[in-house]
Structures are given as C-alpha cells and as structure tokens.
Hints:
single chain, alpha/beta, six-stranded mixed beta sheet, eight-stranded mixed beta sheet, 14 strands, globular, 10 helices
Amino acid sequence: MIKLSRRTALNGMIGAGIAAMASAPSIALLARTKRAAAKTPHRPPQTLARLKPGDTIGLINSASAADESNLIRARENITALGFQIREGRHLLDQYGYLAGQDRDRAADVNAMYADAQVKAVFAMRGGWGSARMLRYLDWDIIRANPKLLIGYSDVTALHLAFAAKAGFSTIHGPNAAHGWQGIATSSFRRMAMNGELVQVDPIITAEEQLPDDYRGHMMIAPGKARGKLLGGNLTVLSALIGTPWMPDMTGAILFLEDIDEAEYRIDRMLTQLSEAGILDKISGFAFGQCRNCRRDISDTPAGFNLPSVLQQHIAPLGIPAFTGGHFGHIAGQYCLPMGSMVEMDAAAGSIRMLKPLVA
C-alpha cells in the first residue's frame, strides 16, 4: 500500500490558493462566484435519520488506494457496530496513488446517496484524493437524500464541501478501516443511534494506548462560545481556501488536527487561514492532537514549539480557545458533529452539542 505525504501532494494547491488570494479578483472569477452562489441557495438544515441496528451502510473510498486488508478491517468494524454493508464498486481500484479515477470515486458517493436502502456512508480510508473528486459529485442527489457521512483526515474535504453545499451535518470520526473502539464507538452510538447530546471532554485516562506525543488540555484564552462546528484536518482545510468547497466560517467553532507536520508548517498554514480572513470570522477555536508534529532538533536547533505557534496565532483573536482535544490521528478519538451547533468551554476543554444530530 502506498503511503502518500499530504505535504507533498497538497503543496501545489496551497501555493495556488495563496496566489489566488494575493491577486485582485477578475471579472470572470466574480461571475463564477455569483453562479456558484446561485446554485447553492441558503436552506434550513435537513433532518438526518437515526441509525438502527441492521441498517445498511454504504462504504466508499474517496482518497488513497486501499488493499484487501483495509477492506477486511472496514467490514469487521462496520459489522461490529451492528450494520450491514453495501460496498462501492471502486473500493479497490487503483489509479496511481488514488483509489481509482476521480469520476469513479465520485460515482460511488453519488450512488450511495441515491440508494434509498443505504442509511449512512462510511469512508474507508484517508490519504489524499477527496478534493479531486468534489467537482464530480451530484449535489442535487446528495441534498435530496440527507444521510450521515463518517470519516476524517483527507475526508475533511468531503465534510467541508457538504457543509458548503449539502445543508446537513456529517460526523468527523474514524474512517471505516481505522480505530473503532472505546470512545469512538460509544460517542458514535450515542450521537448517531441514540440521538443524545454528546459532550467532548478532555481525556484523563483512556482504554487506548495514547501516543508519546499526546498533548493534554491547555487553555489558550478563557470563555464560552456557541456556533456551528466546522473544521477537520488543517492541511486539507487550508488547501480548500479560495475554492467553492470552503463553507462560510462566520461565527463558527473551528476545530483542527493534523499529523506529520513540523511546527513551521503548522505556522505557515495558520498564517494562511489568518491572511484569508478565516480566523477573524470564528467565535471559538479548538485544536486536537497533532501526531508526529515535533521538529527534528538536529535539523532545526531553535524554533517555536506547537503550543507557542498556536498561542501566537489564536490568543490575539480574543476568542475562547484551547488545545489538546481528544480528536485527530489517534486511536479511539471522539466523534464530532460537523456542521452542528455546539457550545465550547475553553477552560473545561469541552465541546457540547446543543441539539440532537439525528431524529
């Protein structure tokens, strides 16, 4: 199985986004923006159906190529949650480092949302590729058939696009072939099957083995804030700036996580969010775990650590903010109700749902 560095794959997109922001918008660009807005009118949030044992779950792969072991584990995890599985036609396709051609991966997503027997859609794995297929999704079909989408990491591109175009919430949680145990399973069941108001809290003890670089709760600025929960993987999110797939962040609670990114790259991406005006719009900020995000001391003997980088960018905003949330590239992460209204408490390090995700 090929492991792709998101930093390498997304470098071109990030650079293009910065260049686009630096230049004055052309008449053609303004016209395209107006057309996109006309195609996506403001709609009230759509109701999502509560999942039940025995429901059929659609399995798709929007990102990197997978192998049979990924599929076996995804089947085991979904079955253990009590569901049946309908597999996308292109799950094990391979096109370079991608799980098949862009149109084929998108066709699997469209098919799952068009299928009335499929009650929710799980992404099998992350890596890279979800952003490439967004233009081929049938948003009319997706909007007409609201159902939960579950995944994280590169699936952030799908979550953000759904927030911008679909009008219903999704779940930022483990991909189907990843760590479905402990808090991940319990928070998913409570949120998606029981319709409970889940609260995400700091972890004092955990059943799962926490990584050596796990960071506990640290408050950046005190206070409570309410808003729509939006965010995901920082690298993927920053690459969508300037595209039609970035939702309006006004008043949002922004949550972020990442993996394999040195502090200076986190600094660079947060600078991009700041210069694009996104950080000025949000009402609260929560940073989860950043696995393997420490610089190589022998390569960079002096510099800022991650808490310092976050402090520099977020503290001046004057909004409630904390780091160390139990979400990201870790085993047993909390599921988060992407696109739903929440209240965050920076001092407590908590994120609390304000309304049920499903009915």
